[in-house]
Write a structure and sequence with these properties.
GO terms for molecular function: DNA binding. It is a single chain. This protein is mainly alpha-helical and 203 residues long. The protein has two domains: 126 residues, Response regulator (Rossmann fold), CATH 3.40.50; 55 residues, Arc Repressor Mutant, subunit A (Orthogonal Bundle). The protein has ten helices and three strands. The chain has a three-stranded parallel sheet, sandwiched between helices.
Length: 203
Amino acid sequence: MVDDHPLFVRGLELLLPEASDGRASVVAATGDAASAASLVRRTVPDLVLVDLHMPAPGGVRAIAAIRRSTPRTRIVAMSGDDDAASALAALRAGAEGFLPKSTEVADVLQPLLSVLDGWAVLPADLLGALLGPGREQPAPVDLDESERQLLQLIAAGDTTTEISLHLHVSERTVKRQTATLLRKLRVSSRTEAAALAGRAGML
């Protein structure tokens, strides 16, 4: 955890193991954004939670530094507010998702597991704010029924496992079909695919 609020960090240290039946725990924490990347290199966590509103250099720069030094590490930004501009800056810096700090600990676990499974996570209202009513409409893409169904499941935030159960195919098939769909949509991430689905009126 990269967060300068000791009470919040301590709360997750105590509650995450209990909420996850021991599957999740905080292995290290720092309130210094400048030292975040070196701490991640030393401790090699599966996932890093980064508070966006920290003293200089700040959470967004910490995310960018972590992404450069350990590109395979998954990162989720957190904030005490739902500022779309800050969340977008975090995503551009390399975060796979954003969660408000108001989220209950019991409700934090599933989004974090989804990020570890390769998905991006955003609150629905924040996704709508990022899309914005004035955004340019995307060029139409010709998708068949199975591709449209897969895109809708991705946009709904379903995990690879959940999609495989819904479509009655293997998780490996879901990953292959998702990669093909992203290429067809000319996007590089599931977050972009979800945004495209929103702009196309598929949510």
